[in-house]
Amino acid sequence: MKKILTLITVILFSFSFSQGKLYIKNYSDYRLEMRISAASANNCYPYAIASMSFGPHADVEIPDFNSSGPYSTSWAVKFTPTGSPIHQTAPSGILSTISPLTRWNYSDMMTVDPNTNQSPGDPRFKMGDPSFITSCGYGDGETYVDGNFTDVFWFYIASENATFLVVQPS
């Protein structure tokens, strides 16, 4: 009986602190090429980053690192500021372990014309959660950028534990 109560407590605890979903809403005619990361809200580590690509008009929900395919199956994970990254292929036990400890926090993204594979002239979009940008040392990062051809929004809804990256035509 004690083992069952312990197991139930662990399961409930893991659900109460989860990575949350990442929603990519691309309403533009451009492909999105980005590096996306998630980190601990407490001290920025563990930290995971991956490169991803999303087509025009993509409407994507990524529940966690292990569910990131077909957009990315390769993640670099760091546990300390001075440690070397550990490369993980999803699905991975390490990715499962750090998922409840992290939250989506930053994206360095560019728009690409899918026909020419060239940038349409938009700036590089460095988007992120303001609480992480300063504390984790990401330098610049915004919640809204008005580009030349697209506008990009980044926001987090705590009640849903969901992060949104929305791209729309200017």
Number of helices: 3
**Helical fraction:** 10-25%
Order of helices and strands: HEEEEEEHEEHEEE
β-strand amount:
35-45%
Average pLDDT across residues?
Answer: 88
Detail the poorly predicted runs. Answer: 1-16
- Structural class call reads alpha+beta
Termini Cα gap? 59 Å
Q: How many DSSP E strands?
A: 11
Rg, Cα atoms, Å: 17 Å
- Give me the side-by-side strand order of the main sheet: 6-5-3-2-7-8
The shape is: globular
Largest sheet: 6 strands, antiparallel
Model description:
There is one protein chain. This protein is an alpha+beta fold. It has helices spanning 2-16, 93-98, 130-135, and strands at residues 21-26, 31-39, 47-54, 59-62, 74-78, 86-89, 103-112, 125-128, 144-146, 150-157, 162-169. The strands form 2 sheets. Strands 6-5-3-2-7-8 form a 6-stranded antiparallel beta sheet. It has a 5-stranded mixed beta sheet with strand order 4-1-11-10-9, with no helix packed on it. The chain is globular. Mean pLDDT is 88; it is low at 1-16.
